[in-house]
Amino acid sequence: MRPLVVDLDGTLIHTDMLHESALxxxxxxxxxALLLPVWLLQGKAVLKQRLAQRTAFNAGVxxxxxxLIDWLREQKxxxxxxxxxxxxxxxxxxxxxxxxxxxxxxxxxxxxxxxSGRQKAQALVERYGEQGFDxxxxxxxxxxxWASAHQAVVVNASTAVTERAQQCAxxxxxFPPAPTGIMAWLKVVRAHQWLKNLLLFFPAIAAxxxxxxxxxxxxxxxxxSFSLCASAVYITNDLTDLESDRLHPxxxxxxxxxxxxxxxxxxxxxxxxxxxxxxxxxxxxxEFLGWLAVYFLLTLAYSFGLKRLMIVDCLVLAMLYTLxxxxxxxxxxxxxxxxxxxxxxxxxxxxxxVKRYAELKLQSEAGASQAHGRGYxxxxxxxxxxxxxxxxxxxVLVLALYLNSDSVLGLYQNTALVWAAxxxxxxxxxxxxxxxxxxxxxxxxxxxxxxxxxxLLAGAAFALVLALATLGxx
Length: 474
Hints:
Blueprint: E1 4-6, H1 17-28, H2 36-41, H3 44-54, H4 66-77, E2 82-89, H5 90-100, E3 105-109, H6 118-128, E4 134-137, H7 143-148, E5 151-155, H8 159-168, E6 171-175, H9 182-188, H10 202-206, H11 213-240, H12 242-246, H13 255-258, H14 263-281, H15 286-304, H16 312-332, H17 338-365, H18 381-403, H19 406-409, H20 421-437, H21 445-451, H22 453-471
Parallel strand pairs: 1-2, 1-4, 2-3, 4-5, 5-6
């Protein structure tokens, strides 16, 4: 029975180890990116070997092609020799082969030979002879190998690649790729997170200026600019945090972590989104663009290090929420008061603690003792809960003091009615923490609130109270 040779990148796994190792090296040492062109000039095999030497990875969490693996196990039970042959570095190939316990031998790049395309075909012909093996691959680079194989197994390939494979070899089996729809791309840019950027409108709403069409138009541009900037950073964060996401019960299903969308596409998309954000932001104002830059830099700092610092991560999240309000004030040319900023910090600090508490609770239930990629133990959850509830109740107190200030009371005809907003906010914060404690908080708190009927009713009641207080009770 002929041996079955299997490719790794894009075939056995839904990712590429060169891309994975380059991204991990960049996350651990951003300056190492400057060495990539130097290593590449010495050859692709050298580049792969240097990256393999610098980066450790967990072979157990890679996005494996489970359907293919099940089929390979069936072939092995029939007595076939199963061989892993890949252009990835030998270190990576050996670790993956050991993890799966499926392969009889492993051929891979060794720092001198990049085992891809014609070089892979030549190595296999020397070992098994022309037409002496079957080969499973996925890309145009595999066409020379299929041409030298007895039969081809096409895995995760495009229609064009499948047709070319059929022209140069007898195709035994085809494993079609999973369809990638618009929903996957919306998850990539995290379009649902754009709801947070509605905070840009809050200063104009608080100052009763939103009825001005010019201000609304400027804020709409600001919203688009902030959303594109946020998506650029989300993509960067996902690409540099692949291993941590794969260890998370829910985040492992994200498009890049699961391999549904190739990492290189994110590398191209992120800077394009950022450029679009700056172009649109420049139409708003220079001051807004400055706050957008602060938001971008702070978000990058959070992604590359601050999110791993206990407590600091939640403080930074609260500041990122608050920066949206500050940027909205800059865009609409509204002044910010001490009370409004203080209210924002404490309210969003409570929501940041909600987010972290929900994650710790979820991972604790999954049996983990420590949150991967974070500075917390899962046993810290009760303390995080205490800190978050305290911050939320302080936010209620600050709102009461804010609503009692002369500048705010002057905006309302019925100053007594505006106080009804206090118990509504008190109820909502308590409700959010109750949901988190019951394990119902699987999203970002603000995103959860938009989906939660009780939160929507509380928000509507809050807005109604302020509207009636502004217009006066009939």
